[in-house]
Amino acid sequence: MMIGFLKSRLRVLQLAAAILCFSADRVPAVELYRVGGSDGTEWGDIGQLNGLSTASGDLQPAGVNPARDALGDLTRLGGSITSPQASRENLTLILTDNNDETLWRVTRDRRPDGTSMVIDLGAVLPINRLFFQGVSDSFLRAFELFVHDGDPSQLRNGAPVAFINQVGSNLEQDDPVIEVGMPLQFVRFIRLISRTSQEFTITEVEVFGDGFAPSGDFLSDVIDLGGPANIGQISLAALADEATDVVLQTRSGSVPDPLLYYKKSEVFQGEDRAEELIIPVGSPEALEQYEDLFNADKGSIEDNIDEWSPWSAPYEDLSGDFLSTGNRQYVQFRLTFTSEDARRGASVESFDFEYSVPTLAEAVIGEVWPSEVTLGEVESFDYYLTSAFGAGNTGFDRIEIRTPFSADVRDVELNGAAIPFERVDTGDATRMTLQLTQDRVETTDDVVRIGFDALVTVYGTTFFGKVFDTTGEELGQNVVAGDASELVAGNRLAVQGKLRSELILDLDSSPGAFSPNGDGINDELQVSYILLRALAAVPVELTVYDMSGRRIRSLEKSGQFNGPQTVLWDGRDGGGTLVPPGIYLVRLSIDTDTGTEERSLSVGVAY
């Protein structure tokens, strides 16, 4: 790994005083961090662009305009033009400055035959034409031309192991201008080889193509929020379509550096020298010590998984709640661009997230009990919270617990005594939100217990929690799993489910008999049930038969998941005609990755 890359990657961004705005009394409301857009930090100022460009103002895969020389972006993309025979000459500048008076001349005494030049475009680009300009009395009279797509598996130390894709050659070139056309293809490296012993001169090189790089990525520098922070909503303003994609991921840490650096020791393990960790871990000093080592003494570089969270799962909608660990001072994000069409590329205008410093508590620990339940049954749970507070923490008076489905609250206790509360209607039945109407939690080691009844249908269901202070405008703080009560031994927020063989539970109908006569009373039959082990959206088929076994109607409902579900029947057959009165058999069928199952029940139709 190149040290220049590490320096840029690990440069910690101190947010401006105007952003932090600390006051003597209390931190004001929520602050916003933004990069890109009209009022955010420039993309190039806060991270590494690999195969990306900001020429349009937005962040997008590097592209090639068919009417413009792609080498105009060479330096900005980190590309170069080099030759083993020109170690003291800046070919990148000489051959891309549109100046015929600056040139590269290879004389006879420099052995022109076999002299080569490599162009690294700095990104994989769609290319279809190459141009090399000589002078009338000194030009390349025989050459071979190769390209390479930059496949990482075929690179060593960032350069191709071999060039095998030949796109042009001429051993009897009689024109100072070499122009080679080829089918549009992705190219990262270009190699021109002289096959003449005569002196030659090149004054300019141009490369043309059409479209966007197939991939690119952006890694931000480490962002320092000034102290442990609660992070709220995160948003990426992006444009993509069915052929393009942008993936956003985040991670957070409690030390400035997300990497661990090792040095080779004098102790051997087999044929290799053992490695020892450079300390202090997570500090700029560790990187400085690593850089000062001779290459032979440099060991491996690894992610710090103890003081930094792993990279989050991709943000499905490129927005929403911060997925990485909260109550951390340092944040980093990365973007990955891909495209299946060379002429289409996604773009990102801006990235932002909201945060507040300091946090409501130094730590909020939670655990749920029981830790093992039977799937498909409503279970009585106890959710314990305990906290630690410092001088700058305000405490909290509202608690939110995420439940798979709507849950019923039984009671709330503070240090073993029942306390009054109100349930807050958030418009989301899966966010069980409780307001403590007469109490605040602001003392270290106070224990809150919330009793509630909830349905669990998935093994490993996690009851994520968050606390808020309604007397201020700070962001909520996530609950972290741990030992919150000595009364239980769960130490986690997830519950394990006792696996069942069934996929369908509690198949029922309401009403038992219905009359679809249009009078507004019992005009539809509602078939209800609970789905288990439907981890992805699955289709469900409800088929109605008469008592002779003849199929009357088939109803399909797609996109159903675990949990309580319903399907409606309006009493009509497949042709839209009301069925005659009588007894009918309703059969529910489901096919999932974990199995197939059918259940049936009888219903009555009366007029």
What does this protein look like?
With 607 residues, the protein is mainly beta. The chain has four domains: 3-55 and 217-258 and 304-356; 63-209, Galactose-binding domain-like (Jelly Rolls); 363-498, ntegrin, alpha v. Chain A, domain 3 (Immunoglobulin-like), CATH 2.60.40; 504-605, Immunoglobulin-like (Sandwich), CATH 2.60.40. It has four helices and 48 strands. Strands 1, 2, 3, 18, 19, 20, 24, 25 and 26 form a nine-stranded mixed beta sheet that branches. Strands 7, 9, 10, 13, 14 and 16 form a six-stranded antiparallel beta sheet that branches. A six-stranded mixed beta sheet has the order 32-31-35-29-27-39, with no helix packed on it.
**Helix amount, in percent?**
under 10%
DSSP summary, beta strand count: 48
Q: What does the overall shape look like?
A: globular
Which sheet architecture does the biggest sheet show? Answer: 9 strands, mixed
Structural class designation: mainly beta
Q: How many distinct folded domains?
A: 4
Segments where pLDDT lies below 50 for 5+ residues? 1-28
How many DSSP helices?
Answer: 4
The span between the termini is 79 Å
What portion of the residues fall into strands of 2 or more residues?
Answer: over 45%
Overall pLDDT metric = 90
Query: Measured on Cα atoms, how large is the radius of gyration?
Result: 33 Å
